[in-house]
Design a protein that fits this description.
Radius of gyration of chain B: 23 Å
Helix content of chain A: 40-55%
Largest sheet of chain B: 2 strands, antiparallel
Oligomer: heterodimer
Order of helices and strands of chain A: EEEHEEHEHHHEHEHEEHHHH
Radius of gyration of chain A: 20 Å
Order of helices and strands of chain B: HHHHHEEHHHHH
Helix content of chain B: 55-70%
Strand content of chain B: under 5%
Shape of chain B: flat
Strand order of the largest sheet of chain B: 1-2
Number of strands of chain A: 10
Strand content of chain A: 15-25%
Chain lengths: ~280, ~270
């Protein structure tokens, strides 16, 4: 079953203006972890907004779990596709953590007892149980963003889209969020679409697509995509740090195999060095 | 800037925090009425005692409560001085050019100061002890009769709660913009009135722009979380009237009655 399916979808912000999304065809399988890469203005945020009906496509068809997205089923679709945005401060509506998480559940008119359960579930899912009654404005960036994820989870969507949700966070906060969504994907079976321009984050995904000027220009496993680093550069994207180090090491004469993982790079280096010293 | 404490919730557990927000709102209104009904120092003293008790039971640090006054200190001093110098009274203590200081003027100014302080302190006590959500729930519940004439009460309540939620964020943002302007040589602290007002413009414009951007993003986030204005919603936190509320209600009613009786029996000082 396909969670989200785009068929020849086009969209432009101004009538007759340049296309932000051009004839886009792609799909996300149920339970998949997809990374969407691209530099600023490549159309990746537009893609997120189209998938949840915040924007209406100019042409083409968008299907969510087989059902075509129309004006009529917008509300039902939004229950299934949740988006976490970039700035954590601009997506919390209430001052207290649990009140904010309750917001989405209240919107879909759940009975009160169920809302309590949903809050328990959502807080546990993002590891913020201890902050149920905390004031949102006093949390760290990563914690705020986890509350934002919990707020989306309270509606129990089957698909979670993260639209550059880590862009404004420090490295620690970024890791918190990526760990959190990786766990949600593996343990809760939630389909994750991670939109980012940090290459390292894409490594957790099972598949990645690269966008440029509203079109998909590359796709495959993150490892496949990072292999083609020359091509990535033409789309203004650079390799993850470990990948770049591998490349530089080889250029410097140490024949290490390509890897994107720090510990396996260390092993590679150790292996090469021990071979050379013999 | 951080001293603008108004509208910030102080999280702790206390008798006052646990009261029904509707009751607290009504109590605040009644209290303000009482402050203005009190025409002699005994009545005003009663109001003061009630406020002191409320602060005590709220477990909000006294210093924090009084911080709210700092914001209107200028207003207090300004009106007091004006009243002191221009109030028309009979017992004249001193006179110079167009200024006269009279006994009535002094009493009136003292009343005014106490009233303003009580007014600000009790209002900020409400926001210190009530979460914005509870506050808007309370207002919504109190305004509920207006839904009969199709007034969008729930939407109004939502707007208010968001406004309260964004006060600390906008304060931080103002500080950030001011620092950025200071780093580039802007001067907010010295100069005449006109140059100071002019200095504020480069702060206000970016603040306004960023607020619009925030509003747009928040709108998207709310919609993405299934918010659609008029649609039926449920409530996680239900307001409940308990024995605590009954006690507070009786105390409040006693206060108003007391102040009115004092006015009738003791007469008015002013």
């Amino acid at each position: 079953m396909k969670a989200i399916e785009f068929e020849n979808v086009s969209f432009s912000y101004e009538e007759g203006g340049a296309f932000a999304i051009k004839n886009l065809n792609f799909s996300v399988g149920e339970g998949e972890f997809l990374a969407v890469l691209g530099h600023n203005g490549s159309g990746k945020s537009t893609l997120a907004r189209l998938a949840n009906g915040l924007l209406e496509a100019d042409g083409g068809t968008i299907r969510v779990f087989g059902e075509e997205l129309t004006e009529k089923n917008l509300f039902e679709i939004r229950k299934q596709v949740g988006i976490v945005f970039q700035n954590p401060d601009n997506q919390t509506v209430a001052s207290i953590v649990e009140d904010d998480i309750a917001f989405g559940a209240e919107n879909i008119a759940l009975p009160r007892e169920d809302i309590g359960e949903r809050i328990d579930f959502a807080l546990k899912a993002v590891g913020m149980e201890a902050y149920r009654n905390a004031t949102v404005s006093r949390l760290s960036g990563g914690q705020k963003q986890r509350v934002a994820i919990a707020g989306v989870l309270a509606v129990m969507p089957k698909v979670l889209i993260l639209d550059e949700s880590t862009a404004m966070l420090d490295p620690k906060g970024r890791r918190e969020i990526i760990d959190c969504v990786t766990r949600l994907n593996r343990e809760e079976g939630i389909t994750v679409v991670l939109i980012t321009h940090f290459m390292e984050e894409a490594l957790r995904a099972s598949r990645a697509i690269v966008m440029n000027r509203g079109e998909i220009v590359m796709q495959g496993t993150p490892e496949d995509i990072f292999e083609r680093h020359e091509e990535l550069l033409t789309y203004n994207l650079t390799l993850p740090l470990i990948g770049r180090i591998c490349k530089d090491l080889r250029a410097g004469g140490l024949p290490v195999a390509d890897t994107l993982d720090a510990s396996s790079l260390a092993k590679e280096i150790a292996l090469c060095v021990s071979k050379q010293s013999i | 800037m951080k001293d603008v404490a108004f509208g910030q919730y102080y999280p702790t557990k206390s008798f006052v925090h646990n009261l029904d927000p509707r009751l607290k709102i009504l109590f605040l209104i009644a209290y303000i009425v009482a402050i203005f009904l009190a025409k002699n120092f005994v009545g005003l003293g009663c109001c003061l005692v009630v406020l002191a008790l409320a602060i005590g039971f709220s477990r909000v640090p006294v210093l924090r409560v009084f911080k709210a006054i700092k914001g209107i200190l200028f207003l207090i001093v300004f009106t007091t001085v004006l009243n002191l110098l221009f109030y028309n009274g009979e017992t004249v203590y001193a006179e110079w050019w167009i200024f006269t200081i009279t006994k009535e003027g002094i009493i009136f100014s003292a009343f005014l100061v106490i009233r303003l302080i009580l007014l600000i302190t009790c209002s900020s006590l409400l926001t210190y002890t009530t979460t914005p959500v509870a506050l808007t729930d309370g207002i919504e519940s109190l305004l509920f009769p207006l839904t009969l004439i199709r007034f969008p009460v729930r939407e109004l309540a939502q707007i208010m709660s968001i406004a309260l939620r964004y006060i600390p964020i906008l304060i931080d943002e103002t500080e950030r913009i001011m620092n950025a302007q200071k780093a580039r040589g802007a001067n907010f602290e010295s100069g005449g009135l006109i140059s100071r007002v002019k200095a504020v413009i480069p702060v206000l414009i970016p603040l306004l722009l960023s607020s619009f951007r925030r509003a747009e993003e928040l709108g998207d986030a709310m919609e993405a979380r299934c918010y659609t204005g008029g649609r039926k919603r449920t409530k996680y936190k239900k307001l409940r009237f308990t024995w605590r509320d009954l006690i507070a209600f009786l105390l409040g009613a006693a206060l108003i009655a007391g102040v009115v009786l004092l006015k009738v029996y003791l007469g008015a000082t002013i």
